[in-house]
Design brief:
With 350 residues, the chain is an alpha/beta fold. It has 12 helices and 11 strands. It is globular and about 70 Å long. GO terms for molecular function: histidinol-phosphate transaminase activity; pyridoxal phosphate binding.
Length: 350
């Protein structure tokens, strides 16, 4: 059975007439803008921001297209990946009727967004090796299951999920399969972007918040078929990415070499820090990582977390998360930050 977007799109979204902004209503070049009730005199800043930004962020998408190897019309930019996640719920899931599948332990915003939109969540935990439970996923799917969220590399476990297992889900599910690749830049696995032409139900999420170092700008990306991207653009607010963020993102996207340098150093520091932590008596295991963080199993996660807080070091206590009992999630810092962490932990008495 071939995937058909119209079978899962909400009727009100099919019939939705999107807001038409002033900048959508003309083609070509113009020099006098008297259409959007902006302040024509400028801004009380060195850089003028009195004009509304490009609603579809074309210049940024064109640069992303060159980097990612995918046409601009297959790219959506959102106010963080969280906006893309929320749009997926609002466009495809009927409140109180439909459901989605998540695979805990995983990124918490899938469930939060589901709860906000009154959409049921079916949880199929990963295996003890943090891989997909394909049988459990197949059993959880029902006629009202619209989306399966797969995070790879996974947060908080840091590992990549087996590619062939993800492909099995893509080939056998008639709803959307969303692969969250927020940490893909640190992974040995390649992105699923090149599979967009093969799977019409595939949506890939990425971000400029991690490897690109732009968390403060809040720019998330979704890659999908032109048809699905059209739905995103129909539902999103007209000017969801501000002008300053677009300009700064474009500057950053022209500095790929610096980002690649940071990625290499992060991976090197990941190995160094892991080796140092494994020497500590309260560390039981460090799980394999394809991300810019590590999941560390300890003898007393809460006590270690509180000890570090007292010394001004903040990590993430994940010990109450399913399959992460006793675990801390530690982001890879600079060499100096990692040294401070290691030296401080040497003073911890279990």
């Amino acid at each position: 059975m071939k995937f058909d977007l119209n079978n899962i799109l909400r009727t009100n979204i099919k019939n939705l007439v999107p807001y038409s902004s002033a900048r959508d209503e003309f083609q070509g070049e113009a020099s006098v803008f008297l259409d959007a009730n902006e302040n024509s005199f400028g801004s009380p800043l060195d850089t003028p921001y009195n004009r509304y930004p490009d609603p579809l962020q074309y210049v940024v998408k064109k640069r992303l297209s060159e980097i990612k190897g995918v046409p601009p019309q297959n790219i959506f930019l959102g106010n963080g990946s969280d906006e893309a996640i929320d749009i997926l719920f609002r466009a495809f899931c009927r409140p109180g009727i439909d459901n989605v599948i998540t695979l805990p332990p995983t990124y918490g915003m899938y469930e939060v967004s589901a709860n906000i939109n009154d959409v049921a969540v079916k949880k199929v935990p990963l295996t003890v090796n943090y891989q997909l439970n394909l049988e459990g996923i197949a059993e959880a799917i029902d006629p009202n299951t619209k989306i399966i969220f797969i995070c790879s590399p996974n947060n908080p476990t840091a590992n990549s999920l087996y590619r062939e297992d993800i492909e099995t889900v893509l080939a056998n599910f008639q709803g959307l399969v969303v692969i969250d690749e927020a940490y893909i830049n640190y992974s040995k696995q390649k992105t699923f972007i090149q599979e967009l032409t093969e799977y019409s139900n595939l949506v890939i999420l990425q971000t400029l918040s991690k490897a690109w170092g732009l968390a403060g700008l809040r720019i998330g990306m979704a890659f999908a078929s032109e048809e699905i991207i059209g739905v995103f653009n129909k539902v999103k607010p007209p000017y969801n990415i501000n002008q300053a963020s677009q300009e700064l993102a474009l500057d950053a996207l022209n500095n790929v070499e610096k980002v690649n340098e940071w990625i290499r150093e992060t991976i090197q520091q990941r190995e160094t820090l892991s080796a140092q932590l494994m020497l500590m008596p309260f560390v039981e295991k460090i799980y394999p990582s394809d991300a810019n963080f590590i999941l560390v199993k300890t003898t007393n996660a809460r006590a270690i977390y509180e000890f570090l807080v007292q010394h001004g070091i903040i990590v993430r206590d994940r010990s109450k998360v399913i399959l992460c009992e006793g675990c801390l999630r530690i982001t890879i810092g600079t060499p100096e930050e990692n040294t401070i962490l290691s030296e401080t932990l040497k003073k911890f008495q279990d």
